[in-house]
Structure formats: structure tokens, C-alpha cells
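Exercise: predict the structure of this protein bound to uridine-diphosphate-N-acetylglucosamine.
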Amino acid sequence: MTARILVIFGTRPEAIKLFPVVHALKADPRLECVVCVSAQHRQMLDQVLQIAGITPDHDLDVMQPDQTLDTLTANLLTGLGRVMDAVKPDRVIVQGDTATAMSGALAAYYRKVPVDHVEAGLRSYNLYHPWPEEANRKIIGAMASLHFAPTQTSQAALLRENVPPERVHVTGNTVIDALQWVTAEIARRPSLASGLAELEDRFSGRRIIGVTSHRRENFGDGMEQIARAVRHIAQRPDVAIIFPVHLNPNVRKVMNAALAGLDNVALIEPLDYPHFARLLAISTVMLTDSGGVQEEAPALGKPVLVMRETTERPEGVEAGTAKLVGTDAARIVTEISTLLDDSAAYETMARAHNPFGDGQASGRIVELLANEIRH
Ligand code: UD1
Ligand code: UDP
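Solution:
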């Protein structure tokens, strides 16, 4: 009898990091894969489902405008519990640190169904940076059966928390699988990523800075500072900024107010994954507070300035391709200017480096699952 694996996700980054696992599960006759999306994100999730060719078996459609953490979490917990009662999975998979992942793990635990954690063991050791993700990861880690750690650093963090060593496996991060998959798709069908051509023409001859920003702990003053920094950098005639703005209204209102109407700043809608991969390819520098972008940029040899005080992904910083710059506007401007004006500083950071994985993480995860079910 095949074992039934329920894969749960709800936001853009979870979808990107789990589609390769879903593809691998669906290709494996030993396992039955059932996909449940919470739709904690709606449009930004659907963009990924479409490109990855995944039709969910269950869709909770929970997203509400400007949702609060408590309403969201309550809806997720009850909704995911109902799906589990209907599907009766043998095991559940969650990814990362979102409200969907935490609620999925809790609902599984309440039913005594083993829950396996993809991207386990990331820790910043600061409960409020990133918030609420640091707590979400720890809560999931307390209940998980198998912990799929992306790197040795994350494995070591789990071992320090006394997780039994035989439950922790270093697999690499599935984001590299996703990036390699989308890169191959673009090579096969270049039109998948050709939608930026007009902007590329308009900005030709300028160096492109790709920007993303969405962290809850940066709402308010942090977002204002980021907007001020981008406005300041845009005074340079030799740069152009491409900024796909997250759909969270707390991000959009600040960025639209501060940056709309500037000639060399393109505030655009969230890009689908092939177009975001294109943005990474054409950017000279990435400026971001995203988790996933911190992992993708080093893989492509793009210097990435991380607008956070701490990171649960120190591997990029240790490899030299990522640098923590916080959210002080003056500091961000100084750091970008250094990279633009000092070619030695730029070259030091611009080295392709893959501390986060080799693109084979999903295959390892599926093998480990199949092995676990056999025993
Ligand atoms: C969530 C995750 C965060 C992750 C981020 C990735 C939690 C608590 N937060 O943060 O860990 O890093 O996603 O992007 O799990 N919205 C839309 N359409 C969309 C997506 C969002 O309109 O497709 C708007 C809605 O108004 C929604 C709001 O954004 O209420 C916030 O979404 P939410 O998932 O609560 O938080 P994020 O800041 O996106
Ligand atoms: N991304 C995307 N389109 C965009 C911005 C980001 O496809 O317009 C991808 C990016 O390549 C990365 C992921 O979304 O894989 C990161 O998601 P986000 O920054 O929303 O969340 P985080 O990683 O911080 O949890």
C-alpha cells in the first residue's frame, strides 16, 4: 500500500520551495502526494502554482486583506484540521516558518500524525527578528518527526536543541532545486521571462538594483527608511531600480508614497518566478529583506545587501556574497555606493557560491520519506 503524504503550503516562498518536492513525490510510485494550499497568499501563491503546473487537491482560500496574525492562525488551524480529517494522511510535510507551516504542524500533532519539516533548524536567536518566524520555526521543530536541515549550520542548531541525531538530515535547500528548474524552463522557453524587455530597454546603460521588501518587523520606521534609501540612491544617473512591490498593504502604501513617479525607479507588481529569476540575472546588486532572495542571490553570484539586523541564514554572509546592512537609510546608501563605486569591493562579493544546496534536495527528501515509511 502506498503511503499518503499531505503537503501543506500557503505563501509564495513555501510554494517555491515545495514545488520541487511535490514534483518528486508525484513521480514516485511508493508515495501518494496530496496537496493542500491554505492560500494565506492568493495572487502570489497562484503565480507559483501556475508556473509549476500544480493543481491543489484542497484550497482553503483563507487570505483576507491586511490579515492579523491571530485571525489568520485561527482560520488556518481549523481549516487545515478539517482537511486532515478528510484526507487521513500517513504523514504531513510543512516548509519553513510561516503561519501556514506552524498551523499545519500543530494540526498534524493534534491528530498524532507525524509531521516532517523542510528547511528545519534555521535560527537567528532573536525572537523578534524575524517576527513571528523565529518562534514559528521553534514550535514546528518541537513537534517534527523528520527534520530536513538545509545546511550543516541548521543541523548543528537542531542537535544543540537535543533533537535526536537520527531524526535530522542535511538535504540542501529546495530553493536551489526550484531555481535550477526554473532556469532550465526559461532556457527551453525564453518567452517565460521576456516580460521585462521593455524595462530593460528603458534602463539600458544603467546598472540595475533589484529591490524587495516585506518583513513585518520592518513595518513603520523600517519601511520608511528603506524607501528613503531607495529614493536617495535613485538620484544617481547611472542606476535604475526595479522593485516588485509585495502585495502587503503595509509595504505598498509606504513605497507608493515615497517612490512613485521617479524616472529611474520601476515600482512593479510582484513578478512570477521566471521573471524574478530574470531580475536576479540582470541586477548588479540585490537589496532585500527576503529570506529566499538571500539564498538565491549567492547561487547566482549576485551581491546581496540584506536589510535586517540579524539573519537565520548566516551561510551567505560567511561565503561573502551577502552582507547585513540593517534598515538605517544612511547605512544602506553607503553600502550600495561602495559596491557601485569600488570594483574591488564588488568583485569580492560577486562570486557564485552555493552554500545552500546542490539542487538535489527534493530527491533526498523523498528518499528519506520512503525509507522512513518502510521501517
Ligand atoms: C508572509 C509570512 C512571512 C513570509 C512572507 C513571504 C507569516 C506570518 N508571514 O508574510 O513569513 O516571509 O509571507 O512573502 O506567515 N496579500 C495579497 N495577496 C497576496 C499576498 C498577500 O493581497 O497574494 C496581502 C493581503 O492584504 C494580506 C497581506 O498581504 O493580508 C499579508 O499577508 P500575510 O501572509 O499575512 O503576511 P506577509 O507579510 O505576506
Ligand atoms: N520572488 C518572486 N517574485 C517577486 C519577489 C520574489 O518570485 O516579485 C521569489 C524569490 O525568488 C524567492 C521568494 O519569492 O524565491 C521569496 O519570497 P518572499 O521574499 O516573499 O519571502 P521570504 O523568502 O522572505 O519568506
